[in-house]
Amino acid sequence: MTQPSALRLTGVHHVSAISAHIGRTHDFFTRVLGLRPVIKTVNQDDTSMYHLFFGDGAGSPGSDMTVFDIRGAAREHRGNNSITRTNFRVSGAGTLQWWAARFGALGVPHAPIADRGGRRVLDFDDVESTPLALVDDGGVGDAFPWNESPVPSERQIRGLGYTEISVPVLAPTDRFLTEALGLRHDRTYPVADAATYDVHVYAIGDGGAHAEVHVIVRDDLPRARYGAGGVHHVALRVPEGQRMEDWVERLDAAGYHNSGIVDRHYFTSAYVREPNHVLFELATDGPGFEVDGPLDAERLSLPPFLEPRRAEIEAKLIPLTSNGAAGELARVER
Q1: Predicted local distance difference test score (pLDDT) of residue 333
Q2: Which of 88, 117, 196, 252 is the 20 to 30 A CA-CA neighbour of 190?
Q3: CATH number for position 104
Q4: Would you tell me how many other CB atoms lie within 10 Å of the CB of residue 260?
Q5: Are 86 and 163 in contact (CB under 8 A)?
Q6: Which pLDDT does position 320 carry in this prediction?
Q7: Quick check: 22 and 52 in contact, CB under 8 A?
Q8: According to the model, what pLDDT value does residue 192 have?
Q9: Around Cβ 11, how many Cβ atoms within 10 Å?
Q10: The pLDDT value given to residue 249
Q11: What is the mean pLDDT of residues 261-266?
């Protein structure tokens, strides 16, 4: 058993969003953002819907944006008690300018490049109006470009950045992040837009653009409701050498009800909702997406316990057809 004081998360593992138009979302993440389609699988709790993973060239932990396919889902009602923005890391001010020009040419809604929390950022929305951003990480750490990406390797998304959440009161979330997950309150910065509010930065492990949770404190917003264009949960990385059993024991000892250990085949997880109702997942780095062989996003990947139902599951899934942004992309690239 690992002592609770030795348990340490290392960064963001993945973020899972909701789409009502999975074909358009697939098109946007691969052809507009240039992310690699890592695997095509299904929601293990509801096999009638796709669960798609998009990441860097290696499908690295910490690079994956995943999307649940909920056809006909209503739009998210935005507000507190939710994940309010997901950041992707790129390298250099010139790269942010390149992306701003690309978004402008493709008609992708975006804001001007700005400074936020000591970093340069470019806010934008995907085809479901999911709030996203590119953040300049200064080129720190390894990068694994995707050779088939429509984006030049030096401009490609390097992985996930920090996650932003919004809560009405800080204290219970602070206790959860610091005592249960072992994060460190690193700094606070103000933001002024329609209202002025504080953002509290919690470092995961050593911190950095890939390893932070930014907590926005707003007492003037309604409570959010899940829907298309929203984010269902954020997963944090449990590194090799640490046991999920020890993390579950730590959550139990701190008084946080959780899912217990869930085997997702590609990684092992535990889910826990913090006191302001934001859903966190802890996920191991291994065994990884190549547990069944080389990455192949064309074939439907199923964990062993679902493999006997392959024919039944495939019959219920609609084909992934590209539309929307693809036509615009073709026009721009001519």
Answers
A1: 42
A2: 88
A3: 3.10.180.10
A4: 13
A5: yes
A6: 87
A7: yes
A8: 85
A9: 25
A10: 98
A11: 97
Distance between start and end Cα atoms, the chain: 59
Number of helices (H), then strands (E), belonging to the chain: the values are 6, 16
Burial environment of residue 81 by CB neighbours within 10 A (0 to 12, 13 to 18, 19 or more): buried
Q: What's the pLDDT tens digit per position in 86-104?
A: 999 999 999 999 999 999 9
Are 192 and 124 in contact by the 8 Å Cβ rule? The answer is: no
Whole-angstrom CA distances from 242 to 15, 238, 245, 257, 279 are: 21, 7, 9, 20, 21
Report how many domains make up the chain.
Answer: 1
Percentage with pLDDT > 90 across the chain: 91
Phi, psi of 316 (to 5 degrees): -95, -10
Confirm if 80 and 223 have CB atoms less than 8 A apart.
yes
Please report the pLDDT score of residue 324 as a whole number: 42
Model confidence pTM above 0.85: yes
Strand arrangement, sheet containing 231-238: 36-43, 46-55, 64-69, 12-19, 231-238, 279-287, 267-273, 262-263
Structure token pair of residue 211:
């390893």
Residue type, 212: E
* 76 token code pair: 């998210």
H/E stretch holding 172 = helix 171-175
Give the closest residue to 21 by CA, choosing from 75, 65, 59.
75
Q: What is the pLDDT of residues 22-71, one digit of tens each?
A: 999 999 999 999 999 999 999 999 999 999 999 999 999 999 999 999 99
Q: Which domain holds residue 122?
A: 4-333
Question: How crowded is residue 222: how many other Cβ atoms within 10 Å of its Cβ?
Answer: 11
Digit-coded pLDDT (tens) for 166-178 = 999 999 999 999 9
CB 238 within 8 A of CB 191: no
